[in-house]
Amino acid sequence: MKKEISKSERQAMLILSSYSKVAQDERLEDRFFDTLRFTDKKYQQLIPSSRAERKECFNELLKIVIKSVYCLETMRPNLKNWVSAGLESGLRERDFTFIAQSLIWSLEERLGEAFSDEVKNSWLNLCQKIILVLDEILESTDCSRPSSGETDHHKKRQ
Predict the structure, then answer these.
(1) 130/3: higher pLDDT
(2) Alpha-carbon 15 to chain mean position
(3) Pick the CATH number of 8-144+151-157 from 1.10.490.10, 2.102.10.10, 3.40.630.30, 2.60.40.730
(4) What b/e sequence results for 144-156 when a residue is b if at least 16 CB atoms lie within 10 Å of its CB, and e otherwise?
(5) Contacts of 62 (CB under 8 A, 6+ apart)
(6) What is the pLDDT of residues 121-146, one digit of tens each?
(7) What angle do CA 128, 130, 136 make, to 5 degrees?
(8) Measured between alpha carbons, how far is 89 from 20 in angstroms, rounded to an integer?
């Protein structure tokens, strides 16, 4: 008798399977940074100039996302570090959502037809869960933006 897999197990398999198809594709990384670069000039200043630095930055982002498939709670310290670094670089709360969207758009472009609605919804679901954790981190008193400016989060609290 074949055991049925849960919806979350199915989504995890779809995410990992789709990622494995583009894991070594530098065009995914290029597409991701191009999306950021051409959307808003502020992102252009944050994108590392060398390919090696961009690769390291992109791989760190993907490592966090992919490891979150297994257990999002264990990734909380990594996400907190990522958020802190982003805030220090000038990112605002809404930028983290845009970064997640840029990753999904890049995956969709690189995977083409293999990025089915079910695969896309799996990625969206994971990114939404990550964004919820990021929001919780941003609301914690330990993670605040340097005094050079306010985050969207600080404006909400006032």
Answers:
(1) 130
(2) 13
(3) 1.10.490.10
(4) ebeeeeebebeee
(5) 19, 23
(6) 999 999 999 999 888 888 884 554 44
(7) 105
(8) 30
